[in-house]
């Protein structure tokens, strides 16, 4: 009996070891296959986009061109989701107001809704006047130029995502169109006035976003955080700040996001925003009063009051982004579809619904599969964010777009959002230095930090700042050079 028990024990021990090996093998297989899953799903989506275009376009002479363009458009949409959308969700995730899964779910819903319900229905001739249509020559040359612009922009955004740099997909497309236009028709084909305005936005977008975000953080710190009774101050100021946010987003969506449904000019949009701001301010007074009951008089309590407004602002930013930036993915594709059908490339291009669906789903898949890397970068790796700071970034994004629209400046949502993060971080550094100087003046015997220690205590990571600024500066020329090379290659192979 003892021998049988001993044999059974040895048998079970051997079985446990074998099962452990299988378990280890399974974990190892999952670890190895994990990097392959995302690209595999993305490839399936790109192939499906090509199949949809083949079905929709039918058996025509240019069907294969449209299929290839649809694959490029799907690839571009995936990259916009991976890179651009992170700027809307990064601050909320970094502030722990949203989990990564919650942020992705909200962004997928609102990006798709913005693209499908309020996405721009017309893409002006050759990407908003960057290239003079008469300079291109033939419809075939135009198609290759748009194909090159689409592929080069997608490749550049993909590379930027890989190195962890949030870049402007708008500027990537602009650079791609410009490079293909120069390769097709020379430097004279470029509308340099438009390009100068876009170049100016490289500086204006992040600077304006940073200043506006820093201004609102200044208000929150001086009117709420540094007050003796923080909760009483919050009951006064949080409804005002939420009202400003609601008004800004109301004007933003009226001006930009709903242009497909109804045309609204800036004064009317501002009036709409003002009305929404007053209503929301009045509604939020009792809400914040009830929400603040029983909260302790400390900074941690204030985070509760900003949590829901921050989540709502992230959702609205995603809706507006989907409404405006989906054209970056599908604009050149829509142009190729129309020219392939009619041969006319001098008039405006309407976007078919199936093309818009490819853009909307591509952005959503790109965010779901590849977005977390850039969300973490924007949300936590540049500077530390809490709900108040992240709220300032979201509010800055909406207000800056309104100001830029009033000034007639083309701006990048990426540059504004990241500039807002920079603004919040650098303001915190300045405020910390100011408070340290005041404390030293009040207490002369206080120990003084060395230059090295003060550098280590910087609240904005300089390495990320330099990487991002470098990527911003070279986006247009890099996309342009890449596009020119692709265009010449296509011309040589297929011309």
UniProtKB/TrEMBL annotation:
Q: What GO terms describe the biological role, i.e. biological process, of this protein?
A: phosphate ion transmembrane transport
Q: Which UniProt keywords apply?
A: Membrane, Phosphate transport, Transmembrane, Transmembrane helix, Transport
UniProt superkingdom? Bacteria
Look up the coiled coil feature and give its residue ranges. Answer: none
The residue ranges crossing the membrane are: 36-57, 63-81, 93-110, 142-165, 172-192, 198-220, 232-255, 261-283, 304-323, 351-370, 390-407, 413-430, 465-490
Places the protein is found:
Membrane
Q: How does it sit in the membrane?
A: Multi-pass membrane protein
Molecular-function GO terms, alphabetical? phosphate transmembrane transporter activity
GO (cellular component) term, any one: membrane
Q: Which InterPro entries does the record cross-reference, listed alphabetically?
A: Phos_transporter
In the record, the note on similarity to other proteins reads: Belongs to the inorganic phosphate transporter (PiT) (TC 2.A.20) family.
Q: What is this protein called?
A: Phosphate transporter
Q: Which organism is it from?
A: Thalassorhabdomicrobium marinisediminis
What lineage is on file?
Bacteria, Pseudomonadati, Pseudomonadota, Alphaproteobacteria, Rhodobacterales
């Amino acid at each position: 009996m003892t021998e049988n028990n001993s044999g059974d024990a040895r048998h079970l021990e051997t079985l446990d070891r074998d099962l452990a090996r299988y378990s280890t093998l399974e974990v190892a297989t999952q670890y190895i296959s994990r990097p392959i899953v995302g690209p595999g799903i993305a490839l399936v989506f790109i192939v499906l986009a090509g199949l949809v275009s083949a079905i929709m376009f039918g058996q025509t002479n240019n069907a294969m061109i449209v299929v290839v363009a649809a694959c490029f458009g799907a690839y571009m949409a995936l990259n916009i989701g991976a890179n651009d959308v992170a700027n809307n969700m990064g601050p909320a995730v970094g502030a722990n107001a949203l989990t990564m899964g919650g942020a992705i779910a909200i962004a997928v819903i609102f990006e798709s809704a913005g693209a499908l319900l309020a996405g721009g229905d017309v893409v002006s001739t050759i990407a908003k006047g960057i290239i003079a249509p008469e300079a291109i020559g033939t419809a075939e040359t135009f198609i290759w130029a748009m194909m090159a612009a689409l592929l080069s922009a997608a490749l550049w955004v993909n590379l930027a995502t890989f190195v962890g740099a949030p870049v402007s997909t708008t500027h990537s497309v602009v650079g791609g169109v410009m490079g293909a236009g120069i390769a097709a028709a020379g430097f004279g084909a470029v509308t340099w006035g438009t390009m100068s305005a876009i170049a100016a936005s490289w500086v204006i977008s992040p600077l304006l976003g940073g200043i506006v975000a820093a201004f609102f953080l200044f208000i929150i710190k001086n009117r709420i955080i540094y007050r003796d009774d923080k909760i009483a101050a919050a009951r006064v100021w949080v409804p005002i700040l939420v009202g400003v946010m609601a008004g800004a987003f109301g004007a933003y969506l009226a001006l930009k996001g709903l242009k497909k449904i109804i045309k609204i000019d800036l004064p009317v949009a501002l009036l709409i925003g003002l009305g929404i701001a007053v209503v929301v301010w009045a509604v939020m007074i009792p809400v914040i009063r009830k929400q603040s009951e029983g909260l302790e008089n400390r900074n941690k309590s204030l985070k509760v009051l900003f949590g829901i407004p921050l989540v709502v602002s992230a959702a609205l930013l995603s809706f507006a982004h989907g409404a405006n930036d989906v054209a970056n993915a599908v604009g050149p594709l829509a142009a190729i579809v129309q020219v392939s059908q009619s041969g006319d490339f001098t008039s405006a291009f309407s976007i078919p619904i199936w093309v818009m669906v490819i853009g909307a789903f591509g952005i959503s898949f790109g965010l779901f599969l590849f977005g977390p890397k850039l969300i973490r970068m924007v949300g936590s790796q540049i500077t530390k964010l809490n709900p108040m700071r992240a709220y300032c970034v979201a509010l800055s994004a909406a207000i800056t777009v309104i100001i830029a629209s009033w000034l007639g400046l083309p701006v990048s949502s990426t540059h504004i959002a990241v500039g807002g993060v920079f603004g919040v971080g650098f303001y915190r550094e300045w405020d910390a230095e100011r408070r340290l100087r005041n404390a030293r003046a009040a207490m002369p015997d206080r120990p003084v930090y060395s230059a090295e220690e003060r550098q280590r205590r910087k609240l904005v990571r300089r390495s990320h700042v330099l990487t991002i600024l470098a990527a911003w500066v070279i986006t247009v020329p890099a996309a342009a050079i890449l596009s020119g090379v692709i265009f010449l290659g296509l011309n040589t192979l297929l011309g």
